[in-house]
């Protein structure tokens, strides 16, 4: 996992729980003196351990924590890479372009980004199907990213998570209903 993801988690934890909470999470779940550099890759297990630590600290289910993190992550990444979103001026354009544009740009910015596979289909003006597949099974974070994108474009959405790799399905499916 790229350090930029860890840095965004750090920002979220520090904003909501304080620097001492982040330092405690690092001390408990990461190698000594770990600091994250955006373009460097780190073990996925460290992110999972940190997210589990946040969930335990807040007494929340891990899927809820990952969803909140995904929502936050979208805003953080959008602020750091505004040119990637420059041509994608609507929520619908962004969602359809995740694999063909966003992930292509991410691959240009970061060496070996290990991205999930995302397929999308516009059903009608108010419904998009998003299929997510990754061995990391971070679908709850992906769902949060979609909500974060909706926030960015001032759209209200509802997501139904109709199949899930955590339930032994071969991929996760989100049915995104656009309300406003």
Order of helices and strands: HHHHHHHEEHEE
CA gyration radius, whole angstroms:
16 Å
Quaternary organisation? single chain
* CATH fold-level name of the largest domain: H-NOX domain
Topology:
Layout: H1 3-17, H2 19-29, H3 44-58, H4 62-80, H5 82-85, H6 91-96, H7 98-109, E1 117-124, E2 127-133, H8 139-152, E3 157-163, E4 172-178
Antiparallel strand pairs: 1-2, 2-4, 3-4
Helix pairs in contact: 1-2, 1-4, 2-3, 3-4, 4-8
Walk me through what this model shows:
This protein is α+β, with helices and mostly antiparallel strands. The protein has two domains: 3-60; 79-178, H-NOX domain (Alpha-Beta Complex), CATH 3.90.1520. It has helices spanning 3-17, 19-29, 44-58, 62-80, 82-85, 91-96, 98-109, 139-152, and strands at 117-124, 127-133, 157-163, 172-178. A four-stranded antiparallel β-sheet has the order 1-2-4-3. Helix 3 (44-58) packs across helix 4 and helix 4 (62-80) crosses helix 8 (139-152). The chain is globular.
């Amino acid at each position: 996992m790229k350090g930029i993801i860890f840095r965004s988690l750090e920002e979220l934890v520090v904003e909501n729980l304080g620097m001492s909470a982040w330092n405690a999470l690092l001390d408990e779940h990461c190698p000594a003196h770990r600091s994250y550099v955006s373009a460097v890759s780190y073990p996925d297990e460290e992110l999972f351990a940190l997210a589990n630590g946040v969930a335990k600290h807040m007494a929340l289910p891990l899927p809820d924590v990952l969803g909140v993190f995904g929502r936050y992550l979208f805003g953080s990444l959008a602020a750091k890479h505004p040119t990637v979103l420059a041509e994608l001026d609507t929520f619908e354009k962004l969602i359809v372009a995740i694999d063909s544009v966003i992930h292509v740009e991410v691959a240009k910015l970061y060496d070996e980004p290990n991205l999930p596979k995302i397929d999308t289909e516009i059903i009608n003006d108010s419904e998009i199907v998003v299929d997510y597949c990754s061995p990391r099974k971070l679908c709850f974070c992906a769902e949060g990213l979609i909500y974060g994108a909706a926030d960015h474009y001032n759209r209200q959405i509802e997501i139904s998570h109709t199949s899930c790799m955590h339930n032994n399905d071969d991929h996760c499916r989100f049915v995104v209903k656009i309300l406003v």
